Amino acid sequence: MAAAVVVERSVDCKSSVADLWRVLTDTSYLNRLTGEAPRQIAEISASDGARYRIKTKAGGFNVEWEEWPFEWEHQQRFRVFRKFKAGPVDTVDTALTFAAREDGGARVGIRLALVPKIAWLAWMVRFGTRRAADALVLSVRAVDEALSRRAPLPLPSSARPPEITGGLERAQRALREKATSPELVDRLCDWIRMARDEDLARIRPYALADDWGVDRRTMLATCLQGVRAGLLELRWEVICPSCRVGTEVVNTLSAVKEHAQCHLCEIAFGLEVDEALEATFAPNTTVRKIDVGQYCVGGPARTPHVLAQALLPTRGHATIVAPEIGRYRLFVRGGEAIPLEVVAGGASTITVRSDAREAQHIAPGGTVTVENAHADDRHVKLERVLHESQAATAREVSLLPGFRRDFSSEVLRPDLALKISTVTLFFSDLTASTQLYADIGDAAALRLVHDHFDVVLGIVERHGGALVKTIGDAVMAAFADDLAAVSASIEMLRAFDKFRREVRNGERTHLKLGLFRGPSFLVTANGQLDYFGQTVNIAARLQAQAASGELVIEETLAELAVQAGKLPAASVKERYRATLKGVTEAIDVARIVAAE
């Protein structure tokens, strides 16, 4: 085999390692910036660890290669290895390193090692390698200059001028009429006009809200309203529980399946709407057309919760340096996961087999050697267990006020039930309503019931809850935040006291409320999203425990609400142990009235 052609470069930058790492590890953007062409990507399962076969053009040649998962250490280095099937090169090994400088800047090292298929091609490969290295140098310098001046990042030479149509102005006007924050609408539309295609291809509302310093739910609500106004398109991504990368994209919830799989991590998983379904957006094609070609299959920027990733050769080992104190896990392709606790006073070195199950402990900066117990190549990742998610999950979207009303067609397949780890369910009932119809007549009673819905549903939405359904004169709603549900309930009881005084025949009735938080299943019932399971039953039973003008909740929630200042201590009228029909264990509950 011919000797490797190695070209190295070094770039001194004014920007910090953290800022450069954030941009340069977005390898899809970096590849475009250096002038690479779009790629055709196919999944493969090779015993040597390669996971993708890629076809593209490079240097005038049609090239094809097999690509291994990236290797990296957070804010230190990343590397990718490729073995070519077509073209003049046998293998390509690309690596970037990052080192802090004393002046606050950073030094970025670039190393390209290419092996020609035959020795006499070395001159041509050397020429191409130098050109590729020079392109990387120019890209790093351009990114550094933009970062240091806080200017927009440079656009790839292949980027087309934004194709803006009249649809953007029309959508902006329509959205401004309905949005709670017209200023945010204008900022979002201006961003859609000018942003890079890479940023617009997958708009994550929570990530955008964090970047702009605005409320997440307001941004999510604005994006959803943007769909109705024709500004954006809504998509649902099925997210792998390990790499947190989308494995499938569907346009409607009805297309979601009960199980999915991730090719990179080689795992199958059931869907839970808390984690596995994320709402993302893209500009409506009538507003702006963007380049959605594929330029990369991996890279550290796609998985920010993964601090390190290493190839794990057959019967060989990989070495990972432990990060700061915290909880982590080692995930080996195929699904094996090893808990890793980084603690003060832990061991300086440990060795663990890839099929281990017991938790491991190590000191910060210690060395973890992972031995491959399998007969084929794998890769291993060091993942944060606790990390802030920027995913707007289906759970949070479905609990957003107005979603069920404005997106009534977004339902699951009738035979599908998706698990939700926790949701707070609210039930209300209008007391003495049957007698009300008998005493004042159907028309007057029906009007009173409808007027009371305006009171109840307005307060539910103001506190971030979502109407699930009405059942006669009863209301079922859902909240993401149990304390918000308590606040809504107390406000509702107080508002209803005023309602009873001001509405004809209002003194004949009152509200009974119940709340309960727990796991549930999201299902489609009667053509709309609904909840199913024991949490629903308990919430309904607690509402039945309430007397006129009362709220019944778990005692622990009442105490939490009092401590948080959401509930006056004087509002807790009684604490007792309730035995509920269909519930095996008795529940400690609190009976609450609307004391000022």
Give the arrangement of secondary structure elements.
Elements: E1 5-13, H1 17-24, H2 27-33, E2 40-43, E3 52-58, E4 61-67, E5 71-73, E6 77-86, E7 89-100, E8 106-116, H3 122-148, E9 163-164, H4 166-178, H5 182-194, H6 197-200, H7 205-212, H8 216-228, E10 232-239, E11 246-250, E12 259-262, E13 267-270, E14 277-283, E15 288-289, E16 306-312, E17 317-321, E18 326-332, E19 336-342, E20 349-353, E21 360-362, E22 367-371, E23 378-384, H9 394-398, H10 403-406, E24 418-430, H11 433-440, H12 442-462, E25 466-471, E26 474-479, H13 482-502, E27 511-525, E28 528-532, H14 534-545, E29 550-554, H15 555-563, E30 572-578, E31 587-592
Parallel strand pairs: 19-21, 20-22, 27-29
Antiparallel strand pairs: 1-8, 2-3, 3-4, 4-6, 5-6, 5-16, 6-7, 7-8, 9-15, 10-11, 10-14, 12-13, 16-23, 17-22, 18-19, 18-23, 24-26, 24-27, 25-26, 27-28, 29-31, 30-31
Helix pairs in contact: 1-3, 4-5, 4-8, 7-8, 11-12, 12-13, 13-15
Structural class: alpha+beta
CATH fold-level label of the largest domain: Alpha-Beta Plaits
The biggest beta sheet reads: 13 strands, mixed
Q: CATH superfamily of the largest domain, called what?
A: Nucleotide cyclase, GGDEF domain
Strand content: 25-35%
Distance between the termini: 84 Å
